[in-house]
Amino acid sequence: MKRILAVILALIVWLCIVASSYAIDSIDLKRLSIEELQRLQQNIAEIIVLKREEERSEPNITIEGRTLREIFPDVELAKIVRDEIPKVSIDDIVTQIELDRVTSIVSHSSNIASLDGIGNLRKLETLCLWVNAFMISGGKHLFSDDKIMLEILPDEIGDLSELRTLVIEGFKFTIIPNSILNLTNLKRLEIVHGPLLCIPDAVGTLVNLEEVRFAGTEITEIPTSLCCLPLLKKLDLSGSEIVELPEIIGNLSMLKSLDLSHSQIGKLPESIGYIQTLRTLNISYTKISSLPASIYNLQLDSFDRKGTNIE
After folding, report:
1. Neighbour tally for 111: CB within 10 Å
2. Strand, helix or coil for residue 192
């Protein structure tokens, strides 16, 4: 708490100095320079980090005396946690010690609509939610209209600092919260077959990632930060709306498999030929009509280009 108060005090002092320099009584953010806004952002980010550290270090007394149903409003999620602990009923009272026993949540026919309360599973290492679907043309999946799917990926997903695997197949949310940057132990990230619109830059900070899939989503590009993941071995963007790859894709020095099939991509960057580890490349049914000269530097075991105009 003392560290947080110190940062807040420093922020207040700085804001007062800025206000006096503008000869005003309050701060209009639109009047601040880029440098001033960046400093403000850094201070706020530091406060958030310190606050989260404080919350994690303090015993979670709010759990005591509460039932699984109260902690996890989604009944389907509450039932899975009940079975993992285990408990007889979702109306049983649970302790934080019992919740810390849960290291895996896996559902192969998920009917979970909300992950509210998921942050209480502090020791969770695996979270996999699959929704049954029918495969249709173009690498897309079809879900029945009455199918229950996850509507929001909550900020508290970032509280799962022990998470190694995050797989969500079939969903309704369009954004991934920036709190995902806290998942520093994550090795496998699959957010597939849903209306996701963009990938946050924060994904590029998850340096332990080895497998990334955004297949069947509405993304049109990937952040350049993702091209700096030192351990990434598999990248799947099949069936997405992606139109191009960053030129620095060649920085993925450990990449073994790249799937762009059924996407909207029209060309490959020259740097693709710098990925000497690449063994599997799939560009089938894309708009690619020619290949960069560097691609002949690769030693591919599998190169699928059917459905293109490449001779």
Report:
1. 17
2. strand
DSSP-assigned beta bridge partners for residue 127: 105, 166
DSSP state of 170: S
Query: Which tens digits make up the pLDDT trace of 242-254?
Result: 999 999 999 999 9
Which of 15, 16, 60, 20 lies closest to 39, judged by CA? 15
* Torsion of Cα atoms, 239 then 245 then 248 then 250, to 10°: 50
- Following DSSP, what letter does each residue of 251-264 receive, concatenated? G-TT--EEE-TTS-
Helix pair 34-57, 2-21: axis angle to 10 deg = 160
DSSP category for residue 96: H
Strand runs labelled E in 121-187: 126-130, 134-135, 141-142, 165-169
Q: What does pTM read for this prediction?
A: 0.77
Q: Strand pairing of 141-142 and 134-135?
A: antiparallel
Q: Which of 250, 246, 197 is nearest to 222 (CA)?
A: 246
